[in-house]
User: Fold this.
Amino acid sequence: MTDIQVAALYRFTDIADPQAVRDAMEAVLDRAGIRGTLLIASEGINGTIAGSADGIATALAAIRALPGCEDLAPKFSTADAMPFHRLKVRVKREIVTMGVPGTDPTAIVGTYVAPAEWNALIADPSTVVIDTRNAYEVKVGTFAGAVDPQTDSFRDFPDWFRANRDTLLAGKTQVAMFCTGGIRCEKSTAFLKSEGVDAVYHLDGGILKYLEEVPADASAWQGECFVFDERVAVGHGLTPGTHGLCRGCRMPINADDRASPLFQEGVQCPACAGTRDAATLAAKAERHRQVKLAAKRGEQHVGKRMERDV
Assistant:
């Protein structure tokens, strides 16, 4: 049984001195042997971290000591191997970047819907269901019948909604939105309500909580859920999925992508084939060769240093 525990977490709360919190969190997490990413901003904290059970417990105790984070409830899963190369603790302007000033989920937000009640909501013909994630995430899996905004960045979501509002809401009385862990929906539902949409709902705990709690034979989910670590995707029960990651463009790849004559392990996939010059391809091929050699020696090719990026 794996001893790597993964915790996905976020909390919108006022943080007076994000830099001081960053420094303190980095020290605690580093000592606890934690890897992953933690983002800190004046509006709160967000991240996914991994480590031993004791290490995660130490990290969560430090995070819960922050004002407003006392009852933080992470989404837990496991990994067969460490899914992050290093620890990154960063100060950001927003913990999830939508780029609409004044969007404050602590002041206004949509109605939370428990995973057990989600199927009935999205099956209601009066509901328009919107996947707030980016196109490459939706490609890996989504709920049956959900609208795909086909965005490249969450920053694109507000303009997409404004441009398509009339079509989306035609004949509908309520909006249901979902994302990976719930954080993007905190802002997207706040945004829609600020735009005058009253009946706005979102999946409490996101897709991860749904896949954890709803059994496969009762699920409306199709495919796998993209996650931002080396597991790439998870399925029902949060078990590791079947997708890989293209080292050329960082996009998820499936069995069909791997079978393509354009696919080259560690170098390119069908999505990015033909977009890079020969020198870049050669450099990626050499890096992949070095990664394989390091693995044979039982060494880690990347992630030996802790990254500090403010």
Q: What stands out?
A: The radius of gyration is 20 Å. The longest strand covers residues 4-12. The chain is about 30% helix and 20% strand. The chain has three domains: 4-95, 111-223, 252-296.
